[in-house]
Amino acid sequence: MKMKTNWLCIHIVLMLFASVYAVGFYGLHFKGLEEPAWIGTRILDQKWMQQPIDHFNHRDNRTWLMRYYEEDKYFNGSGPIFIMLGGEWTINPGFLQSGLMHSLAKQHGALMFYTEHRYYGNSKPTQDISSDNMQYLNVDQALADVAYFIDNRKIQMNISNSKVIVFGGSYAGNMAAWIRTKYPHLIQGAVASSAPVYAKADFYAYYEVVTASLKRHDAQCATDVQTAFDQTEKLLASKGGPKKIRELFNLCENPNVKSTNDISYLMNFLSEIFASNVQYNKIVNGKSKISILCDTMTNASIGKPIERLAHLVNKEGDCIDVSYLEFVKKMRNDSWSSNPMKQWYFQTCHEFGYYQTSNSNQSVFGTLFHLDFFVNICTDVYGDYYENHLLENGIRRTNIMYGGIIPDVRNIIFVNGDVDPWHALSILHDINEFSPAILIHGSSHCQDLQSDDNEDVPELRAARERIKNIVSIWLQ
Hints:
The protein is of the alpha/beta class. It has two domains: 48-197 and 404-474, 3-Layer(aba) Sandwich (Rossmann fold); 202-395, Four Helix Bundle (Hemerythrin (Met), subunit A) (Up-down Bundle). Helix content is 42%, strand content 13%. It is built from 15 helices and 14 strands. A hairpin with a 2-residue loop joins β10 (283-284) and β11 (287-288).
């Protein structure tokens, strides 16, 4: 009995540790939104399903094991199937224990699954993540994985008549919309949260939205951020300026002003301090991340705006390495233990783009990180093949295959928050009466997929209720 109790405690600790894994888009320097923590004493063991490495080459009979979680405590034997789609992260059972889908499952007696995306977490189709081996990492293959998963589970569990509703946030929100479009005979509805379904290389609107979100909170905050970035750019161009930048931001070396990649990397790093906090504008004890940022950026007692910016940089302990070459060196690591950013960036290089540049005069984050910088990462990390022409063709293909911003679809709910920069590439107006768009004022990335919280803005709670009502109609 003691051994069993100890094992349970260890399992809970491990699951709580796993809850720090992120959901949704990474930056070069920040992780995505945290999933709900696993709660309760009910243990959900990870499960595995065999999948083809290549769904579209029948001469290739190689297979791999896809990881997933299953929760059947509400399932009455004839209820619907709800699937949370994993994206560019490691899954844990949190969404099967709480959140919007869990609430709906309890209401409708649904069987719940959470599927892990190939090449992320513990779903490893190949020996390593070299560029050659990642040729099977794309959304076409990932959607086929889910389609085969649905077919397999229905056959194995003898539940062929159960309706299927999929849920997804961020890139997985794209997947939810696209799998409903591509496999309508398998999926009867989809909730696509914070889904940037329009692929685009130069996503300059990202920092326009970040800027607008700062201004909405405090116009002076946005002004001081712009001043800070202007001061940083002037220092970089002045004699002795790079040394002052190193001392101010606790960098390991003086910025190499002769390398446009190094300067772009530095300025992108500073910008992502704001991007990560605005994108996941969590509210704790009545104070949002944006509010905390702006409290610092408007605090004249700290010093000039550039000094306030430096105050936001984590300067505790070791110096900060902003060398482009060191970043590329780490990204070239082909082992599974490397940062999952390598897999996600690979997808952006040939399918989506989504590069958050400074190419807009409506942004307050300077002028020094352009599209070329992000494409250079593609070629320097994955090889010369991954250049601008491949990127343009891949983006065009994605928008042709999946509809871009004008898909002809039914039974898809597109949900976005207007604080979230990614809403600029999503569906913001009703496509038809069967595919509504919900834009939540004051909400950020994927917040609708969580459970109700006392800190939620009223529009967010109302949006969740509307989603529940629509899904209930689909299940009639």
